[in-house]
Amino acid sequence: KNGALSFEEVGEKTGAGTGACCGARCKCKIEELIEENK
């Protein structure tokens, strides 16, 4: 989102990774999306 290049940047902007699982379920998918859209 907004040109983020890492999971951490996405998390800062969207709150991803702050749930009870701490990103265990979404981190891989977000990293795949970042890689696909570079």
UniProtKB/TrEMBL annotation:
- Where the record annotates domain BFD-like [2Fe-2S]-binding, the positions are 2-36
Q: Which InterPro entries match?
A: BFD-like_2Fe2S-bd_dom (IPR007419), BFD-like_2Fe2S-bd_dom_sf (IPR041854)
Q: Spell out the protein name for this chain.
A: (2Fe-2S)-binding protein
Q: Per the UniProt entry, what species is this protein from, by scientific name?
A: Clostridium perfringens
